[in-house]
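Quarterly update from the structural biology core.
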Amino acid sequence: MIQQQISFCTTSDGVRIAYATVGDGPPLVYATGWPQHLEVEWQKPVVRRFLEDLGRGFTLIRYDMRGSGLSDSDVCDFSLGSLINDLEAVVDHLGLERFPLLSLGDLGGPLAMMYATSHPERVSHLILNSPFARGCDIAPPEARAAMIEYVARYGFPMAEFVDAPEGNLKALREIREIGDASAPRDVQVELMRMEYSVDVSALLDHVSASTLVLHARGDTFVPLALGRDVAARIPCAEFFPFEGAGNGPVAHQRVIAREVRRFLSGILRVSVQPGSEEFEPGPRPDGLTAREMEVLRLVASGCSSREISESLVLSVRTVERHITNIYSKTGARTRAQATAYALARRVMATPST
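Predicted structure, tokenized:
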């Protein structure tokens, strides 16, 4: 059974953040938009199935935002800038140079858009589920005030925004348990206020990453029109509205996982061997790493360093470093010799039919 690995890092303002990695493949970074709990989520079948499906073929990277889950709880700054610090700490600690960034709702959308515009060189693809640009557009003032009061008394009603099949009480109970374990109510209130006051509308025109915007037509928290507006204003955005009610991503896990994989198929195509997702390569010759094998296959296929960098979501400098390592380990001195080496040892990818 696949297991997640939990580690810790520290933000620039001294907050310890817990993050989890699971899977084996190119990185997929999940920008946390609401308090969760890495361990409790992984223990709940309804969420674990979603995470395993979502991350299939990737190394899925999740983290507990400050004040929640396994991260430091003694925190008072929950501004959008501080939440960006959490994301930056995880990405920097893992040494990620370029990666797709995923948000599944709540503050994740504004956070991901802000990070993508401030670090355009690092975000290769942006995926936004149920996004909005201005929190004040989510609901009228009286409805926002009522929600904040409710959260202060009872916590955020996560299960109420999940369109679970009637009678699926176990799934709803699991979702409530995650919410109860995630963060105290005072933290949730601060984040709820932040969500209603955030405004990233001025950033939309500056998002340069290829973007997929997903939105349920019957979203009960963020109106469909807000997601459509985000997609219309981001230059390279694809809008994918889908049938369904509720707001929680678990309610729409099949369509979300499917569309994420479709949108990122170019990354998966060079990381999962063609012909079978269950292909297992043989022993790696001459101590080549898995990444060096990927680079070698693309070199032997005639790809330039720039093309390899785009396919593997790496910088050109990193690709060139891998090629240098390949030359050193194989004795090749040119791309032609590296291609001959790949052919002789049958490490070339076989085109799928």
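Residues 282-344 form a domain with the Arc Repressor Mutant, subunit A fold (CATH 1.10.10.10).
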